[in-house]
Amino acid sequence: MILLSSVSARADDWPEFRGPTGEGIARADNLPIEWSTQRNVAWKQTIPGGGWSSPVVRKGRIYLTTSVPVEGGVLGSQSLRALCLDARTGQVEWNIEIFHQEGGPKATIHNKNSHASPTPVIDDKRLYVHFGPQGTACLDLDGKVIWRNQELRYDAVHGNGGSPILIAEGLVFSADGSDRQFLVLLDRDTGKVVWKTDRRGNASRKFSFSTPLLIDVHGRRQIISPGSGFVASYDPRTGEEIWRVRYDGYSVIPRPVFGHGLVYVCTGYGPPTLMAIRPDGSGDVTETHVAWTLKKGLGLTPSPLLDGDELYVVADNGIATCVDARDGTVHWHERLPGGYSASPILAGGRIYFQNEEGLGIVLQAGKLFKELARNDLGERSLASYAVADGALFIRTKEHLYRIQKP
Hints:
Elements: E1 41-46, E2 56-58, E3 61-69, E4 78-86, E5 92-101, E6 121-122, E7 126-130, E8 136-140, E9 145-149, E10 165-167, E11 170-176, E12 181-186, E13 193-198, E14 213-217, E15 220-227, E16 230-234, E17 241-246, E18 257-259, E19 262-266, E20 274-277, E21 283-284, E22 290-294, E23 305-307, E24 310-314, E25 319-324, E26 330-335, E27 345-347, E28 350-354, E29 359-364, E30 371-376, E31 386-388, E32 391-395, E33 399-403
Parallel strand pairs: 17-21
Antiparallel strand pairs: 1-33, 2-3, 3-4, 4-5, 6-7, 7-8, 8-9, 10-11, 11-12, 12-13, 14-15, 15-16, 16-17, 18-19, 19-20, 20-22, 23-24, 24-25, 25-26, 27-28, 28-29, 29-30, 31-32, 32-33
């Protein structure tokens, strides 16, 4: 795996959704495999409001977003906020309102979503936060807002979802609503639109929530962005579409992963398919560049995880699967307890899953299924893990935990 993002993360940083590579790989080999509300808890901090964005960590500070209901206004109004915490102590260093979201019927979201679901992204000097059609903003690391952009409006069915990424050219995110679907690049210094590419497909339900992935194919960078009805590759400099693969699927949430010369994409609802695609084509390559597919035990929400020759997926209903990443041969299917929204991570040869009831399940990575531990926090959890400085950061409904060996 090659880190292509412009986020030059230190070994102990977790700068974006799914970490330094954007694919759930943690550079840590000393994480605990057992924890509880008391065991291996360095600290536990109450987070105001609610949100399912994952924390990001840089140079000993944690950043995340949240949504706090506004009292006395229109029912459902929200204060959309960014927070910074000291990673060592859990103390909140600043808590700043970025946008105000007016309540009413259009503020309704899915019961598994939140008003603060996209994960921030951070570099050496700035934090970028995103709230879907409510807007995007850039802050310095002391919480001062540098710019806001609220011009990119669209009808985000079920609320916001996909996270932004940073590349050399700027800030990229998908905006796939029921009315408009596009991929956009913002200037990182001003927030102005550099390019915006319409994403036209034939899906009857056009909304999706996926996070893009930047890859390199024979020296040519590509932005991979799944949407309803197709996944496409885009030129980072211009936004021009390079290739696409069609499928039957909508409300696509999982972020792709890349390895062995293949892009692994989950197709969303209707029912899901895992596709392994060779990304070296141009135009519509549906009939020529799909290496293999899998149609059993696939997630609608969690992203896949690639470790060497093994590819792991977990379905929302708890069916976990390990397949050969090169040809799709299934090594094992096993049921894990509960339902799943969070994406798994790899650390120290172990796979860490988190279910929606706050139960963490640790497996030994490999072609044979081996469960190592179950760890119950007893609180709803849909956010994905973050890892930094030998610690696991877990966001639950009301708290943020730092899990670490003594």
